[in-house]
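We emphasize that the prediction below concerns an isolated chain of 116 residues; any contacts that depend on oligomerization or on bound cofactors are therefore not represented. The input was used exactly as deposited, without trimming of termini.
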Amino acid sequence: MTMLPWASLILSYAGFTALALAMPRHHEELWGGKPGPLARRLWQAGGALALLASLILALATWPNAPVAVSAWAGLLTLAAFALAMVLTRRNLGGHRALVLAPPALALGCGFLAAVF
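Result of the prediction step, given as a token string:
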């Protein structure tokens, strides 16, 4: 089995993280301040692009488009649930690291895939 489903899941988490950081409440919890209008748009665009990349990876993984979209919806559900659990846990040490580790992992996996 290839790593594409895992990469799709990580990109989904990264996309939802970016969309959460576009919201003033979550941005303030993680970075200590509210995002400006340009920052909000950039976070939203980054989140949308990550979710689109996740869909493209799902379509590359499963040859049948309806199956791919259904599996992608399942991956989105898992990613959203994981992020929701991290964001609701306020007194967790390393809160910022837990939220930002999967997007960093996605970038690292993308770099490794490009090299090899």
